[in-house]
Amino acid sequence: MRKAVPYILLLPVMLLTLIFIGGIVNVIIQSLGIIPSLGLYKPTLSYYQEVLSRPDFLSSIAFSLYISFVSSLLAAILGVLVCALLVGNGLAKGKIMQITKIPIVIPHTVVALLIINIFSQSGLLPRLLYALGLISAQESFPSLLFAPNGIGIILAYLWKEIPFVVFFVISIMANISTTLGEAAQNLGASPGQSFRYVILPLCMPAVKNAFLIIFAFSLGAYDLPFLLGATAPKALPVQAFIEYTHPDLLHRPYAMALNSIMFFISLIIVVFYYRLLQGNLKKIER
Amino acid sequence: MKRTMHIDRLGIISKILLIGFIFSILSPLVVIVVWSLAGRWAWPHLLPENFSLRGMQELFGGYSGAMETLFFSIGLSLVVALLAVIIGTMTARALVFYDFYGKRVIDLSTFLPIIIPGTVFAMGINVIFIEMGLSDSVAGVIVAHLICSLPYAIKIMTDITQAFGRKLEEQAAVLGASFRQTMAFITLPSLLPGLIASGCMAYIVSFSQYFLTLIIGGGTVMTFSVKMVPYLQSGDRTLASAYSLVFVCSTLLVFIIFEKTIKKFYRDESRYYFA
Question: Do A23 and B124 touch (CB under 8 A)?
Answer without folding.
Answer: yes
